[in-house]
Design brief:
- The complex is a heterodimer of chains A (114) and B (113).
- By secondary structure, chain A is mostly beta strands.
- Chain A contains no helices and 11 strands.
- Chain A has strands spanning 4-7, 10-13, 19-25, 31-38, 42-51, 54-57, 64-66, 76-78, 87-94, 104-105, 109-113.
- In chain A, the strands form 2 sheets. In chain A, strands 2, 4, 5, 6, 9, 10 and 11 form a 7-stranded mixed beta sheet that branches. Chain A has a 4-stranded antiparallel beta sheet with strand order 1-3-8-7, with no helix packed on it.
- In chain A, strand 5 (42-51) and strand 6 (54-57) form a beta hairpin.
- Chain A starts with a strand and ends with a strand.
- With 113 residues, chain B is mostly beta strands.
- Chain B contains no helices and 12 strands.
- The chains are: A mainly beta (114), B mainly beta (113).
Chain lengths: 114, 113
């Protein structure tokens, strides 16, 4: 199906484990983004990518790693999960046209680190 | 840098009440402005947008007018329903070569029957 999909929808992991959140989009949008959403903090940008093999840090990148070997995929890896990374994670994509189009968001991954 | 300021929530209204959620922005040039809605347990969805001054965006009974003189993009609806209960985010895009949206902090709306 066309769209932007995130997996898994829910994840519980233990402190210190590595976990990868997946994001896949079918529009060939050049830009992709990862946000985390926490009560009292709104949306905070973790990493973004302007194209395949081009990534850059956002507001809160520490503890996270991204890669983008293909335009359609933008996985987010927590190398050693901590309780402070318990959050809801949203992936988004955008047309390179930028202005006037905004972003399209996935449904989110709720991650709990115990 | 660019910024978006929304009114603090939660906003609690009775069904059929009039809604206003204030949004003001700071940006150089002529940004595009957006309202997104997030229903419980879901991602953000684009609700409406306006790309130039005096444009009015509208969707699902919601409206917002791009007011450059007051740097505002307030969201309004004449008669809210329980199903409108959600978090609303105002955002701007600077219309430059980059592709970054700046979001406000979000306003939670609760509509009671």
């Amino acid at each position: 199906d066309a769209g932007i999909t995130q997996s898994p929808r829910y994840k519980i992991t233990e402190t210190g484990r590595q976990v990868t959140l997946m994001c896949h989009q079918t529009w060939s949008h050049s830009y992709m983004f990862w946000y985390r959403q926490d009560l009292g903090h709104g949306l905070r940008l973790i990493y973004y990518s302007a194209a395949a093999d081009i990534t850059d840090k956002g507001e809160v990148p520490d503890g996270y790693v991204v890669s983008r070997s293909k335009t359609e995929n933008f996985p987010l890896t927590l190398e050693s999960a901590t309780r402070s990374q318990t959050s809801v994670y949203f992936c988004a994509s955008s047309n390179a046209g930028g202005a006037g189009y905004g972003y399209t968001f996935g449904s989110g991954t709720r991650l709990t680190v115990v | 840098g660019d910024s978006v300021t929304q009114m603090e929530g939660p906003v609690t209204l009775s069904e059929e009440a009039f809604l206003t959620i204030n949004c003001t922005y700071t940006a150089t040039g002529y940004p595009s402005l957006f309202w997104y809605v997030q229903y419980p347990g879901e991602g953000l969805q684009l609700l409406l947008k306006a790309t130039k001054a005096d444009d009015k965006g509208s969707n699902k009974g919601f409206e917002a007018t791009y007011r450059k003189e007051t740097t505002s993009f307030h969201l309004e609806k004449g008669s809210v329903q329980v199903s409108d209960s959600a978090v609303y985010f105002c955002a701007l895009h600077p219309n430059n070569a980059g592709n970054m949206l700046t979001f406000g902090g979000g306003t939670r709306l609760m509509v009671k029957p």
